Recover the amino acids of this structure.
């Protein structure tokens, strides 16, 4: 079986495509040895395109208010314990100014779906950032909006949008979300974002409740077909204030394995070693980078609100997670042979 898995990895490296059933075999039949074999190929492919450069993005969590009730998420509407906050445009600009001084040239504005943060205010904020820091890219991650709103965001100067598809399997989606949310709508948003002209990021949690190897295989096939410019994956981690509080977390091992597979499917993709991976394993960032990831997103939110954007228990937000500690992160990356670079970090074409 090991030989069969290695053959599939070789074929994926060469053609960047497999059948969904073959992806499921790669996931189900993996061993530490095949994982090492795969990681070395993913690392080599990433180096052939991006060298040893690691891009950094400053993550600003602009609102913990959310109208949605996703069963896994700590800032879901139904979590009464969650402390809600909403940053002002001035606070967001101040975060960007700090980030700029630290060398960040991409700012990611992420938040719950917060009707109190009006679309006009989002546009105003994006315009202000682009005016003040014209050499920086603005990425938005604010959930599902109408085509018109995505267009306004784009016209305001946002060039990238992250919207994890969460799962490519509609039956699995139903188990993770309440009735009023729609898998078809989320997938449709990704296509609208692409048509609007954004660089688009999708992605999913690893080890979310009810996820099977077949669900993950469908996720990989979806990535192969959709060809996103960015892809964010991280382990599911339970939050004590959600219906999924008792479910086990996803593993770093499977997350890292999937990062390598994604690198072989999408050679030029911008692929972060996520906060969730850093939370679940002390060397999660390093493991992710060594397996083919090439982006890190340190936290640039004001220190006073960081604990409040708690998507899952014990989410990292201080120490090397903090943008202010970029020098330490730089040293950690150098230790494993990579270099954090300053720049917008657009995808290689
Ligand atoms: N509201 C926006 C959206 O829906 O895309 C962006 C914010 S949302 C909180 C960002 C991502 O956090 C989600 O796409 C989800 O994959 C991830 N997330 C939420 N709860 C999580 C958990 N318990 N463990 C790991 N990741 C989680």
């Amino acid at each position: 079986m090991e030989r069969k898995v290695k053959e599939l990895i070789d074929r994926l490296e060469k053609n960047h495509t497999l059948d969904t059933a073959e992806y499921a075999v790669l996931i189900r039949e993996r061993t530490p040895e095949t994982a090492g074999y795969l990681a070395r190929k993913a690392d080599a492919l990433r180096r052939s395109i991006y060298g040893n450069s690691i891009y950094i993005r400053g993550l600003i969590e602009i609102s913990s208010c959310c109208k949605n009730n996703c069963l896994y998420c700590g800032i879901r509407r139904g979590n009464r314990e969650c402390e809600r906050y909403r940053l002002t445009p001035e606070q967001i600009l101040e975060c960007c100014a700090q980030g700029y001084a630290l060398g960040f040239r991409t700012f990611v504005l992420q938040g719950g779906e917060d009707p109190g943060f009006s679309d006009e205010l989002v546009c105003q904020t994006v315009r202000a950032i682009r005016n003040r820091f014209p050499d920086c890219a603005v990425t938005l991650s604010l959930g599902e909006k109408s085509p018109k709103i995505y267009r306004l965001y784009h016209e305001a100067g946002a060039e990238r949008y992250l919207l994890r598809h969460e799962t490519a399997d509609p039956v699995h989606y139903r188990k993770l979300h309440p009735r009023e949310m729609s898998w078809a709508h989320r997938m449709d948003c990704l296509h609208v974002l692409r048509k609007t002209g954004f660089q688009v990021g999708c992605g999913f949690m690893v080890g979310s409740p009810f996820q099977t190897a077949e669900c993950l295989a469908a996720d990989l096939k979806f990535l192969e077909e959709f060809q996103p410019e960015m892809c964010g994956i991280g382990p599911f981690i339970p939050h004590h204030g959600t219906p999924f509080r008792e479910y086990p977390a996803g593993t770093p091992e499977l997350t890292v394995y999937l990062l390598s597979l994604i690198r072989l499917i999408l050679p030029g993709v911008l692929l972060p070693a996520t906060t969730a991976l850093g939370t679940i394993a002390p060397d999660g960032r390093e493991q992710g980078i060594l397996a083919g990831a090439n982006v890190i997103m340190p936290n640039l939110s004001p220190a006073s609100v960081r604990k409040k954007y708690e998507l899952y228990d014990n989410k990292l937000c201080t120490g090397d997670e903090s943008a202010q500690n970029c020098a330490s992160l730089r040293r950690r990356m150098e230790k494993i042979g990579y270099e954090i670079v300053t720049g917008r970090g657009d995808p290689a074409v």
Observations:
- The mean pLDDT is 96.
- The two ends are 36 Å apart (CA to CA).
- Strands lie at 53-56, 58-63, 106-111, 137-141, 160-162, 199-206, 230-235, 295-296, 339-341.
